[in-house]
Specification:
Mean pLDDT: 92
Strand content: 5-15%
Number of helices: 9
Helix content: 40-55%
Distance between the termini: 49 Å
Order of helices and strands: EHEHEHEHEHEEHHEHEH
Largest sheet: 7 strands, parallel
Oligomer: single chain
Strand order of the largest sheet: 3-2-1-4-5-6-9
Number of strands: 9
Structural class: alpha/beta
Length: 284
């Protein structure tokens, strides 16, 4: 990274889609490590609640701020950047976590509104975030931008029940690769672009989707989740530590690695069964 990078205790991270779930988990972990945190979400009331919770939990209300932002609206993303700079002076890390998923359903059962929502939030939102963050980081001379993958987006793996969602995330992967190539061709080491593949986390959104599934499909999904899934409080500290230590252009910070999958498979062969879903109020 460039010599313009600020000391960790004075750095600021902007996290889109951070009023709950993974985004809120990231915010909590960055605050615990001394950074300033700017949270956002589409609902102003949810943003206020998230700020209040983070301020109370961290005991550092002066280091957390936020504002409402729909990432599919370029003007709103620009306003989020301006808010962060006005409040804390610069943006050192932009973590684009906001997105929308409608999974577990056949393509024919996904509505046109849901398709549009996924494309706008996941694809247009990622492009808006990149456009605003890269422009701002060029002005200030440093920064890290991370886009979020998922649903087989990093590998191109075809995942049943994720036709539209995985397609949007595959598009984000291609887009991120293009951004990385641009930085390398320009010899730009001041701005680092990377991706995050956080795995399958039991978030509020995931629980809502499970509740929409028919009973038999829900049972099958729970069996898969107990093998593949994880709690937000497990993945987010690991991911945040790697973001803070990252300086590699084009790095993909991946939680659910082949090594982790092999360990779980071997454990299952010896009768060890993971159970991460029983703590949640899911009807079976």
């Amino acid at each position: 990274m460039s010599t313009g990078v600020r000391a960790l205790a004075t750095q600021t991270v902007v996290i889109t889609g951070s009023t709950q779930g993974l985004g809120f988990g990231y915010a909590r972990e960055f605050l615990a490590r001394g950074l300033n945190v700017v949270v956002s979400g589409r609902d102003p009331a949810s943003v206020t609640r998230a700020i209040d919770r983070l301020a109370a939990d961290s005991g550092a209300p002066d280091r957390v701020s936020g504002c409402a932002c729909d990432v599919a609206d370029l003007a709103a993303v620009e306003a989020l950047w301006a808010h962060a700079v006005d409040r804390f002076g610069a943006v050192d890390i932009w973590l684009n976590n906001a997105g929308y998923a409608r999974t577990g359903a056949r393509f024919a059962d996904i509505t046109p509104d849901e398709i549009e929502a996924m494309v706008r939030a996941n694809v247009i939102g990622s492009m808006n975030a990149a456009q605003v963050a890269i422009a701002g980081m060029q002005r200030q001379g440093h920064g890290k931008l991370y886009l979020t993958l998922g649903g087989g987006g990093a590998s191109g793996r075809v995942v049943p029940g994720m036709s539209v969602y995985s397609t949007t995330k595959r598009a984000v992967k291609y887009f991120a690769d293009c951004l990385v190539k641009e930085r390398k061709e320009q010899g730009d080491t001041k701005i680092v672009v990377g991706t995050i593949s956080p795995g399958i986390n039991l978030t509020e959104g995931m629980l809502r989707e499970l509740g929409q599934l028919p009973t038999d499909e829900r049972r099958r999904a729970l069996k898969q989740l107990n093998f593949l899934g994880e709690h937000v409080e497990t993945t987010t500290p690991w991911i945040v530590e790697r973001i803070l230590g990252d300086s590699k252009q084009g790095n993909d910070i991946t939680w659910l690695t082949t090594g982790r999958l092999l360990k779980r498979a071997l454990a299952a062969l010896f009768g060890v069964r993971r159970d991460i879903t029983s703590r949640y109020p899911i009807e079976v």
